[in-house]
Write a structure and sequence with these properties.
By secondary structure, the protein is of the alpha+beta class. The chain has 14 helices and 16 strands. A hairpin with a 5-residue loop joins strand 15 and strand 16.
Length: 480
C-alpha cells in the first residue's frame, strides 16, 4: 500500500482480472517456497515511525505536502491524513551494534524533521493518538492527495454500505458514527520489521503473535481519543473499527476481518497467510500491473489491504529472490527515539527467544489465549493479567520482570547483538515496567494532576520532554 496507483475507479472486469492474477501469483509463491527458491538470509531489522504535524495551538496541521517537499528526504512519505507523515530507516543486519546504528539514524532523521517543522512554524510529535485531535479534523478535505487513499476510502465504504460505527468502552465510553476512513488517521504507529529466514518464517510469525501482548503493554501511548479516556492503547479498537470490513459474504463482524489479530498460528508454512488472503478476502484495489509474475505485484498490493497486527510481507533481495519479513504493527509512535529503539529491542529479543522454542515444540500458549492476552494488554496495559505457557494468570509486571525480559536478553544474545547495547535498551524497558510509567500512564497522570481537560498543555509538556530524548519513565509531570 506504500505505492501510488494510477486511478481511483474500477470496473467489474478489473476485479475479475486482478483476482486471476492474484491466484497465479499465489501459486507461483507456493512453488517458490516449496522449491526453496527464496532468500534464506539472516534476520534484518527495519522500522517505520508515523508522526503528527501540529500548529501553535497543538492542533493537527494539514501541511504534509509542503513539509515533505521542504524536508526532501526519500525515506519520508505522506500518510492518509495531511497532518501525518511516515519515516523509514535503512534495513540493517540484526546483529552487532545494530541497535546503536538504528538509534543514530533515527535521531538524525528526527532532528531534520524537527528543524523543518520549526522553520514552518509547526511542531512534529511522535504519539499514538494526538490528545488535542477533534473529530472535525478527520474529514476528506484533510486526506492526502494520493489516488490510493481515495480509492481505498471508496472501496471500503462500498463494501460496508453503512457508516463506520465507533464504540469503544474503556475507562470512559465513546460512541460515534463517521462516514469515511479518516478515523484511521487518528492512530499513528511505530512498526517494527524483521526479515527472517524463509524456512523459519512461520515460527517467527507465531512468535510475534505470542509476543504481541507484552509488547503492546510496555509501549502503550494512546489513552485519549476526542478527550475520552479509553484503553491504554486505544489505537487497537480504533483501527479495527475504522476499517471494519470482513471477508466474503460481508462478514464485517465475523471471524475473518481485514484488521484483526488473525485467525490462527501458521501451522506448517507462512504461505498459509497468503492462501487465506486469496480464499477469504475480496479484492479492494484491482490495479493492473504489466509486470512479470515473479514480481508478485498483485499479491503484494492485496496483502497491503489486509492489516493483521502481525503481517507477513513479501520483498526482494538484491538477487531478486523473494524474502519474508514480519511487520509488527501493534506499538504506538513515541514517546522518544530511544524509547522506540528499546521497544524494538524487546520485540526482537523476545520474538527470537520464543521462535527458538517453537522450532522444537508446538506453542504452549494457544492462539485463543494469545489473542485474549493481546486485547487484555491493549485495554489495561501494565495493569493487565495474562496467561502464559504454564497456564497460570499472572500480573504482567511480574511476568515481564521475572520471565519475559530475561527471555528477551537471551534472544538478543542469540542474534549476536552487542551485549552492552542489549543491556542498555532492555534496562530502559525494565525501569519503565518497574515504575509503571509508559507514555499512556504519563498522559493520564498529567491530566489528573491538571484536574482539567488541559490537553493543549499536556501536548506542550509532552513535546518539551520528547525533545530531551530522555526515556519516558524519567519524565516529570511538568513542562520543561
Amino acid at each position: 500500500m506504500g505505492l501510488e496507483i494510477d486511478n481511483c475507479t474500477f470496473s467489474n472486469r478489473d476485479f475479475e482480472q486482478f483476482r486471476k492474477e492474484l491466484a497465479r501469483e499465489t501459486e507461483w509463491l507456493q512453488q517458490a517456497i516449496s522449491s526453496g527458491n527464496c532468500s534464506e538470509k539472516s534476520p534484518t531489522a527495519g522500522f517505520e515511525i508515523e508522526a503528527w504535524l501540529v500548529d501553535e495551538q497543538m492542533k493537527p496541521a494539514p501541511l504534509n505536502s509542503s513539509f515533505l517537499k521542504t524536508l526532501n528526504d526519500p525515506l519520508a512519505t505522506p500518510e492518509l491524513a495531511k497532518f501525518n507523515i511516515e519515516l523509514n530507516n535503512s534495513p540493517l543486519p540484526l546483529k552487532g551494534n545494530v541497535l546503536q546504528q538504528l538509534n543514530r539514524e533515527l535521531e538524525s532523521t528526527w532532528g531534520n524533521v524537527i528543524q523543518t517543522a520549526e522553520s514552518m512554524g509547526l511542531s512534529a510529535v511522535m504519539i499514538g493518538i494526538l490528545p488535542t485531535l477533534e473529530k472535525s479534523s478527520l474529514c476528506l478535505r484533510n486526506m492526502s492527495e494520493l489516488n490510493r487513499f481515495r480509492a481505498l476510502n471508496e472501496q471500503i465504504l462500498k463494501q460496508r454500505n453503512a457508516p463506520i460505527h465507533l464504540d469503544i468502552n474503556g475507562k470512559e465510553h465513546l460512541k460515534l458514527d463517521h462516514h469515511d476512513v479518516m478515523l484511521e488517521s487518528a492512530a499513528t504507529s511505530f512498526q517494527v520489521h524483521m526479515q527472517v529466514p524463509l524456512n523459519r518464517a512461520h515460527h517467527f510469525y507465531n512468535a510475534s503473535i505470542i509476543a504481541s501482548a507484552p509488547c503492546v503493554a510496555i509501549s502503550a501511548n494512546s489513552p485519549f481519543l476526542f478527550k475520552h479516556d479509553l484503553w491504554d492503547e486505544t489505537r487497537i479498537p480504533l483501527f479495527e473499527q475504522s476499517i471494519e470490513t470482513g471477508g466474503y459474504g460481508g462478514a464485517a463482524r465475523g471471524p475473518i476481518r481485514r484488521v484483526s489479530f488473525g485467525t490462527d498460528y501458521a501451522r506448517k508454512s507462512i504461505m498459509e497467510c497468503f492462501e487465506e488472503n486469496l480464499q477469504h478476502f475480496p479484492v479492494l484495489l484491482p490495479v493492473h500491473y504489466a509486470s512479470d509474475i515473479g514480481e508478485l505485484a498483485h499479491l503484494r498490493l492485496h496483502n497491503g489491504t489486509i492489516w493483521r497486527w502481525n503481517r507477513p510481507l513479501i520483498g526482494f533481495d538484491q538477487d531478486s529472490l523473494p524474502h519474508i519479513r514480519i511487520e509488527h504493527r501493534i506499538m504506538a509512535a513515541g514517546p522518544t527515539i530511544i524509547d522506540s529503539v528499546a521497544n524494538a529491542a524487546f520485540f526482537y529479543g523476545l520474538t527470537t527467544a520464543i521462535e527458538q522454542q517453537l522450532a522444537n515444540e508446538v506453542p504452549r500458549l494457544t492462539f485463543a489465549q494469545a489473542k485474549d492476552n493481546f486485547y487484555l494488554a491493549s485495554k489495561n496495559g501494565l495493569d493487565a493479567h495474562l496467561s502464559w505457557d504454564d497456564g497460570e494468570h499472572q500480573r504482567i509486571q511480574t511476568l515481564l520482570l521475572e520471565k519475559l525480559l530475561p527471555l528477551a536478553r537471551e534472544g538478543l544474545a542469540i542474534l549476536g547483538i552487542n551485549h552492552s547495547d542489549a543491556k542498555n535498551y532492555l534496562d530502559i524497558i525494565c525501569e519503565r515496567v518497574e515504575s509503571k510509567q509508559n507514555g499512556c500512564q504519563w498522559q493520564r497522570h498529567f491530566i489528573k494532576q491538571q484536574n482539567s481537560n488541559g490537553f493543549k498543555e499536556m501536548v506542550e509538556a509532552y513535546l518539551s520532554h520528547q525533545k530531551t530524548e530522555k526515556p519516558v519513565h524519567t519524565w516529570s509531570l511538568s513542562k520543561l
